[in-house]
């Protein structure tokens, strides 16, 4: 076992989850990710990608098995404890972007830092730098998020996730509304920021063309067989 994998960022053992009795079930015999690894997860619609991310981010709880994040046993924590862990360590960008429509673009970017208890002045500087890198015009920073296009909202959502420098970044189809130029700068910024901060990334998409940005990839069909990322 390598040094990195002795203390993995993410480690799942014999995890099982179902939304209800006799329904579709997600089964993961083993999944391990080293700190700082960037993993691309792909799979067809309904294969369980969002369900996996909801478990990893602590939004839902495993039915059985073990789920460790940064050495913390998520499977033993209450919903409130998982919320706290998510606020402090996990950046999330989901398909439903969940920007607060009446708050300004900048205030939306500061939300995750606020919940993580991080310094506001530093968070503002970092948010401004990231917004510039993702080409969100300064004239929009103090406008309400509701006036943004979906593509602009996707870029603001990734800035919000990155501002508090999370140790784990979880992204679910975050580029679906971006044109190819914006998608490229989005991917490059996200992965460069992650690398600079030793952040582990799990990025889910059904778009295999995005796999080129990643060192490791995983097919949802392999997951049930306990196959590791490659
Ligand atoms: N809240 C829910 N209650 C019951 N079943 C659900 C719920 N959410 C998802 N499912 C079911 O769980 C399975 C996996 O769904 P999930 O959303 O994780 O797939 P996905 O790979 O993310 O799909 P997509 O690419 O279409 O977003 C599907 O069979 C789906 O119908």
UniProtKB/TrEMBL annotation:
GO cellular component, one term: plasma membrane
Record domain ABC transporter: where: 10-226
Keywords from the named record: ATP-binding, Nucleotide-binding, Transport
PROSITE patterns linked to this entry: ABC_TRANSPORTER_1 (PS00211), ABC_TRANSPORTER_2 (PS50893)
One GO molecular-function entry: transmembrane transporter activity
Name used for this protein in its record: ABC transporter domain-containing protein
Source species: Rheinheimera salexigens
Lineage: Bacteria, Pseudomonadati, Pseudomonadota, Gammaproteobacteria, Chromatiales
């Amino acid at each position: 076992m390598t040094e990195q994998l002795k203390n993995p960022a993410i480690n799942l053992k014999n995890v099982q989850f179902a939304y209800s009795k006799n329904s579709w079930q997600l089964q993961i015999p083993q999944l391990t990710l080293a700190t700082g690894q960037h993993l691309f997860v792909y799979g067809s619609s309904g294969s369980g990608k969002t369900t996996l991310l909801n478990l990893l981010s602590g939004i839902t709880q495993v039915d059985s098995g073990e789920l460790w994040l940064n050495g913390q046993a998520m499977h033993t924590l209450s919903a409130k404890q998982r919320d706290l862990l998510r606020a402090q360590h996990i950046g999330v960008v989901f398909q439903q972007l969940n920007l607060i429509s009446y708050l300004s673009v900048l205030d939306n970017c500061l939300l995750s830092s606020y919940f993580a208890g991080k310094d506001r002045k530093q968070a503002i500087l970092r948010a401004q730098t990231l917004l510039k890198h993702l080409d969100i015009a300064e004239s929009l920073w103090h406008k309400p998020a509701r006036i943004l296009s979906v593509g602009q909202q996707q870029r603001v959502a990734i800035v919000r996730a990155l501002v508090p420098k999370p140790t784990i970044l979880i992204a679910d189809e975050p580029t679906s509304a971006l044109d190819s130029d914006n998608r490229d700068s989005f991917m490059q910024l996200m992965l460069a920021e992650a690398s600079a901060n030793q952040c582990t990334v799990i990025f889910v998409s059904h778009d295999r063309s995005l796999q080129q940005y990643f060192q490791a990839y995983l097919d949802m069909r392999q997951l049930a067989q306990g196959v590791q990322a490659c």
